[in-house]
Each structure stands twice: as structure tokens, then as C-alpha cells.
Automatic annotation (TrEMBL):
Keywords: ATP-binding, Cell inner membrane, Cell membrane, Membrane, Nucleotide-binding, Translocase, Transport. It comes from the Bacteria. InterPro entries: AAA+_ATPase (IPR003593), ABC_transporter-like_ATP-bd (IPR003439), ABC_transporter-like_CS (IPR017871), ABC_transporter_ATP-bind (IPR050166), P-loop_NTPase (IPR027417). This is Aliphatic sulfonates ABC transporter ATP-binding protein. Residues 9-217 form the ABC transporter domain. GO terms for molecular function: ATP binding; ATP hydrolysis activity. PROSITE patterns: ABC_TRANSPORTER_1 (PS00211), ABC_TRANSPORTER_2 (PS50893).
Length: 217
């Protein structure tokens, strides 16, 4: 059984403008529950903007974003956004970075989340002792502890070397298989998009310019 059912996402007629610049222009998108979507497009086309809207970090000028039937901005607890740089707090140990902001008895969950990314043995170290790839895995554990129904990843692997990147890709793929959350991954790397996702979206001129299903043999 899937641990966390993914949430369906419905984006309808969403526009986002910064000043006189229209970044997203009446964008429509439906993501079925549990689908793994990769978003590609030229620098500045609005990929991170779309993720921030999906995370409820900013509001659209027009249109609406729903998780199932709930406005996405109000279901933020289900949503985790992971950026390219992991931003761990250097003065908190690895385990405390995973449990950041949680109350109550979170330690066991934090160990479980660290175990899921293969880092339980580094729990009591300082972030400075970790490599870039390990920091990314801690950031992933920090997302997993919330049992997200929608996982938003903004270029999470961009700074990693090729081999570590490959390891992280297979970790993300296996966590997705296991948990069943919906994933939206922004990446510059089209081959990464095709390798990981069910579906690849190209953002162009504020809209979905290309929507490709990827058949995994
Ligand atoms: P990249 O691949 O380089 O990360 P992106 O597709 O993620 O690019 P966004 O960060 O979504 O692009 O930015 C889209 C456009 O919106 C850019 O032209 C950017 O300069 C502009 N923009 C983003 N945030 C703001 C803001 N807070 N105020 C003004 N303009 C912004
Ligand atoms: Mg971006």
C-alpha cells in the first residue's frame, strides 16, 4: 500500500504578472494524483514562479490552484518545496534540521526519514560535515517527515556531480514509487526529466507549450 496518497492538482486560468511583465498567462494544468511531472523551459520562463504558486508562497493575479477541491494555498502542510541549495541550518545537528519547526515527539519520525535517504548514521553530526549530495538528502528527509501529498522540487540536483546526481535521481524515483505522492520537478536537464517523470511539460510564453507523456518501457 502507498504510504501517502498523492493529491491531484488543478490549475485553471492562472496568470502571474510582475509589474508590466506577464510571466504566466492563463495557464491550465491538471495533474492526476500520484503523477510525476517534470517542468522544463528556458531560464526565466516561469518554472519557479509556478512552483511558488503551487506551494502557496505567492498568489496568482488571476485564476485558481486546487489540491483536490481545496485551494492549494490552504493545504500548505501537504506541500513541500525543495530548492537547489539545501539551506540547512549550520548550528543545528542533522537530526534537528530534519525535525525543524516540528513539535512533540518527532525524533523517531526524523530517524525514519533519515533512514529513508540512507543517512541515519549521520544524525548527530553537524551539516558542515556533509557533502553537497548528503545535504540534499537531508533536505529530502526534511520534506519526507511531513508525509507530503505533493512534493515540489525546484532544481534539487543542479549543483551535484554526475554520479551523485544519478544516485539522487534513483532515490527520488524509489521514494516516489514507495510513497505515491504527486511530484512536480523543475529541471534544466531534459534527459533527467524524461528519465524520471511520467510526463514532461515545457513552459513557453506563459503557457504549457508542450505536454508529453513519457512511456517507460
Ligand atoms: P530559471 O530556470 O533561471 O530558474 P525560471 O523559469 O524559474 O528561471 P522564474 O524564477 O519563475 O523563472 O522567473 C520568471 C520571470 O519572472 C523572470 O523574468 C524573473 O525575472 C521574473 N520574476 C520572478 N520573481 C520576481 C519578483 N519577485 N519580482 C519581479 N520579477 C520577478
Ligand atoms: Mg527557477
Amino acid at each position: 500500500a502507498r504510504l501517502t496518497p498523492g493529491t491531484p492538482v488543478l490549475v485553471s486560468g492562472v496568470s502571474r504578472r510582475y509589474g508590466s511583465k506577464t510571466i504566466l498567462d492563463r495557464l491550465d494544468l491538471h495533474i492526476p494524483a500520484g503523477q510525476f511531472v517534470a517542468v522544463v523551459g528556458r531560464s526565466g520562463c516561469g518554472k519557479s514562479t509556478l512552483l511558488r504558486l503551487l506551494a502557496g508562497l505567492e498568489k496568482p493575479n488571476d485564476g485558481e490552484l486546487l489540491a483536490g477541491t481545496t485551494p492549494l494555498a490552504r493545504s500548505q502542510d501537504d506541500t513541500r518545496l525543495m530548492f537547489q541549495d539545501a539551506r540547512l541550518l549550520p548550528w543545528k545537528k542533522v537530526i534537528d534540521n530534519v525535525g525543524l519547526g516540528l513539535r512533540g515527539n518527532w525524533r523517531q519520525d526524523a530517524y525514519a526519514a533519515l533512514a529513508a535517504v540512507g543517512l541515519e548514521h549521520r544524525a548527530s553530526e553537524w551539516p558542515a560535515a556533509l557533502s553537497g549530495g548528503q545535504k540534499q538528502r537531508v533536505a529530502l528527509a526534511r520534506a519526507l517527515i511531513h508525509r507530503p501529498r505533493l512534493l515540489l522540487l525546484d532544481e534539487p540536483l543542479g549543483a551535484l556531480d554526475a554520479l551523485t546526481r544519478l544516485e539522487m535521481q534513483s532515490l527520488i524515483a524509489s521514494l516516489w514509487q514507495e510513497h505515491g505522492f504527486t511530484v512536480v520537478l523543475v529541471t534544466h536537464d531534459v534527459s533527467e526529466a524524461v528519465a524520471l517523470a511520467d510526463r514532461v511539460l515545457l513552459i513557453e510564453e506563459g503557457k504549457i507549450g508542450l505536454d508529453l507523456s513519457v512511456d517507460i518501457p
